Amino acid sequence: MVSKGFWKRRSLRVPDDQQTKAAELTLRDSIYPICLVTILFFLWGFTRTPLASLGHAAWILRHFGYRAVFIWGLFLYGLGALLAIPAIIGRSFGGFCVCIFIIGNGLGSLETAANPYITVCGPPKFSEIRINIAQAFNGIGTVIAPVLGSYVFFNFDDDVALRNVQWVYLAIACFVFLLAGVFFLSVIPEITDADMAFQASETHAGTQDKPFRKQYRLFHAAFAQFCYTGAQVAIASYFINYAVETRSNTDSALASKFLAGSQAGFAIGRFGGAALMHFIKPRKVFLLFLTLCIVFGAPAITQRENTGLSMLFVVMLFESICFPTIVALGMRGLGRHTKRGSGWIVGGVMGGACVPPLMGLAADRHGTGFSMIVPTLFFVAAWSYALAVNFVPAYRDTVDAFSTTEVGLRERDEDAVVGGGAVTSGTDVKVAGVENPEVANVEKV
Questions:
Q1: Which positions, given as ranges, span the membrane (predicted)?
Q2: Residues whose CB is less than 8 angstroms from the CB of residue 330 and which lie 6 or more positions away in sequence, other chains included
Q3: Which of 5, 105, 316, 426, by CA, is between 20 and 30 Å from 234?
């Protein structure tokens, strides 16, 4: 018989006004949940995530919690994969499109929760490093997926390939349902708005708690994310066309190999950028990388042959850290608005649906080479946020308050307790090595 405590510890609803220990997680405390959520980043690297509605995921996140969204997203992903099997057997294109829509909503839900969770799970000082390393596994997935696909799908006739696809979707469904079970059974930290408000006050970044509509730094970050993501997706979408049109003796097959190489550079850039952030402030690394995207993207507008193509290689290398770093920087100091605000920043991925058509229009009229002016201009628009977090005090000071804080770098057992164990900070803590705190001399931190 499963005890009531078992179900209580695994409840999917955590009130946002309830403060937990999550705001002060140490590196050791955060290792397991971070590793578990990082699997999700690798998982959606195996597909091109379509634009999914963020409404249902955002609602579940605010009314239940991160773990509930993880399970919901995996459920939708698995459901879509299972339903795809009869659609494939019946060769129903419409049915398969519906299944892809369900899968896309699952992946969209996972991305809605996973990015902010990795950002806030653990010491705030290392937020940018954590999310960039996690996102790097997404890049690995995008490199491995085409290679596996060539062996599973493209070396067989149509009938055999269809059977292989069915087995692949069945394997995906089994894996994601199993992973959903792991998330349900795992007791991972649940970060509430009360935790983030406490964290902001501890770093002195939340001394001016404003209404959501006045969080102008958040909306600037969401704008930057829209512009950056639009530019990134536009370049990736037209990379093959660019190579074919601007480089002699290049067909689509060769251009696709160039694209795979640039995606590998993208993944390497995230690991390298994360390592660089250990020595240089993340906001400065972000400014450097986004600036170099503009510097090398502009010549691709007019240069041709290997020169123009090499410019795009370098641009994709320096694109690597921008998306996750905007998420991490934009969430700084949101306090009680963290969950709601993270939805706006992640929602910036809509730029990936808006900018490529503009680039396509420019390509139709002036050629793919000249159309690179479109993503370059959107890089410049996103650059306004990189400049702000480095040179505008209201932005920079908030970011630096989290980058220098000691929250999470020391064990919580140093917190003060009074009387019969009441905690002065409002969190549940313990006193290391002391059996009876009432007889211990505990110094308030």
A1: 30-47, 68-87, 93-110, 131-154, 166-188, 218-240, 285-302, 308-331, 343-363, 369-388
A2: 217, 218, 220, 221, 222, 224, 225, 341, 345
A3: 105
